[in-house]
Amino acid sequence: MQRSPLSEVKRGHILNMLEKGRRPDGRKLSEFRQVEISTGGIETAEGSARMKLGNTEVIVGVKMEVGEPFPDTPSKGVLTTNVELIPMAFEAFESGPPSPEAIELSRVVDRGIRESQMIDLDALCIEKGKEVWILYLDIYALDYDGNLFDASSIASVAALRNTVVPASRFGKGEDFKLPLKSLPISCTTVKIGDYLLLDPTLEEEEVSSARLTVATDENGDIRAMQKGGSGHFTLDEVRRSIAMSVEAGNSIRRYL
Amino acid sequence: MRPGNGIYRQGGSYFSSRLGLKVFRGGFVDIVPLSGKYVPVPGDEIIGTVTDITPTNWLLDINSPYPGVLHVSETPWKIDFGATARYLDIGDNVTARVLSVDESRHVQITMRDRDLKKLKGGTTVDIAASKVPRVIGKNGSMIDMLKRYSGCRIIVGRNGRIWIEGEVDKMLLLIKAIRMIDEEAQKHGLTDRVKMMLEASA
Amino acid sequence: MSMEIPEGMQLINSEGRRLDGRRPDELRPIKIEAGVLRRADGSAYVEMGKNKILAAVYGPRECHPRHLQDPTRAIVQCNYSMLSFSVDERKRPGPDRRSIEISKIIGEALEHVIFLEQFPRTSIDVYIAVLQANAGTRCAGLTAASVALADAGIPMRDLVPACAAGKIAGKVVLDLMKEEDNYGEADLPLAYIPRTGEILLLQMDGHMTQEEFERAIELAKGGCMKIYELQKEALRRRYSVAADEAMLREETREV
Fold this sequence. Notes:
The complex is a heterotrimer.
Chain A: H1 7-19, E1 35-39, E2 47-53, E3 56-67, E4 78-85, H2 100-114, E5 125-127, E6 131-143, H3 148-161, E7 164-165, E8 176-177, E9 185-192, E10 195-198, H4 202-207, E11 210-216, E12 222-228, H5 235-255
Parallel strand pairs in A: 4-6
Antiparallel strand pairs in A: 1-2, 2-3, 3-6, 5-6, 7-8, 9-10, 9-11, 11-12
Chain B: E1 2-3, E2 7-10, E3 13-16, E4 20-25, E5 28-33, E6 45-53, E7 57-61, E8 68-71, H1 84-87, E9 93-101, E10 107-110, E11 118-119, E12 123-126, H2 132-136, H3 141-150, E13 153-156, E14 161-165, H4 168-184, H5 190-200
Chain C: E1 30-34, E2 42-48, E3 51-62, E4 75-82, H1 97-113, E5 122-132, H2 137-151, E6 162-168, E7 171-174, H3 178-183, E8 186-193, E9 198-202, E10 205-206, H4 210-238, E11 246-247
Parallel strand pairs in C: 4-5
Antiparallel strand pairs in C: 1-2, 2-3, 3-5, 6-7, 6-8, 8-9, 8-10
């Protein structure tokens, strides 16, 4: 994903607006775009969600099957997360193997779910050391206008909440709802000049110097963090981003 | 009635090649498409944005599948070889005119008219080129209204790129109005709706 | 085609109804929406029975890769792919041979109707994503791509509808669903322009007599004609124009 060479001129215009407390789409700096989520639309998936965040749209599908556990975690289910930046979503996305952007996205979304222990992976054990549930979380970007980190993460949470483990299909008993332990919500802030903006659009991402994604839970505890971009944050800026993430996270959690 | 733009002939009948509105012009029927890319036509006054610089010319994005080439000899300035970046840099917006388009659609543009210039500050908004007449309106009625309510400077390129400059809040309002025209150009009562929207935010 | 049919399953019951209650000449319910994505130049969403397909068009735009550029016309690059969760058993992301073949034949059908000479040196990029599959995805994909191209304002001779006919339990039927495709005897996808009678996509998989083939083509043509009307309607709705105001492949006589 290349930076547009036009960004420097756009940057001047956007900074001009930020000085007056406005963003190109009229939002306040700490405002999230409108979130629209629909779940369960894909019958071939065990769980699914389609989400619009402003003009960014992603679709997430969960597929499950029975398989072998990893040797070092014989009684835990296996989670595999994959984000596909398909060319339909944006002119600069190319087909082919995942780009570094796609891989970073996949790994950040994965950690947000795995390290926060959102899914009870122990409950996905069928026979220790032999059989566990394998869960594939596949995220596709359909329309790109910034902030795929949050769109992917939040849509994944919605899809997982909607997921039913297809035990009967594999002869492992009755189907059951995927057991979840918490609902971490991810919120991303970018830095433009000295300003911090929550939930950036594509235009804002392109002129920003750095990005910080923070996933928080119901208690305001931090479950995951990722800083990206070649600029820097001061510690104070990090604290402010966390505060914005907690607040936005709670609103989104209520909506879900 | 004779077939004009956007109509092709097959067998003994005429068909439209795109979804569009029938427009009667003189003794002709044109199809004004509701969407589609700008195809440069010599004489068009456009707004371009510099994307590439060489020692003897600039390449500009003109909101079209085809870039516009601006040669140093087609500017109002006397430029030494290699000094091109000092006059126009990447990201700069300019008003220009389409000079020529060959069969492979290589586009040459010029800035040599008196009122063609580099645009300082402001920002650009892109709409479908076919909607430009709606932004201008009958006898300039729409664009006059836009200027009045926003107090902004507005230059509309034939290629669908519009440059605006003014107070931050007014520019945001103006962009909203322009997008409204782009979305609803083909509907009735557009001028009234845009006026209502502008008045409500005054 | 020709998987072992499960015990007790009747593809056509004693009343002549199929598994989903349809009669032999009935299409599955269809929904078409134009202009569903913001970034792409044109887009469309199609549901045909349980198929859910999204198509997006970028272009005409600068041709990448450069070496494929044609100085006299635009080229069409089509990419059909199934999302990993669109089928019962998860599909690994990435192109497979089936997707590449389907991309090719859909691209060729579309090339035939686009006025390519109007845009030399460019590429018209068509992306088709199957979100949920239930037999007939290439037809639904081509139907969607055609609407997406019109949504993008790309000049064409006509919209291209597509649908499949087939043979199940010895009988020729229209628009196979998944089980009928799995356990039936033949499958015949067709893309057809009603106005000119041109056939732009044609494949056959299975076993048919020549009479059965003729019957299948008749059914598929009829299906295409219905789908064509739905394509036009979707575009009119998108732009909220009344039928009498917009001109879309309507005839005008020279006065």
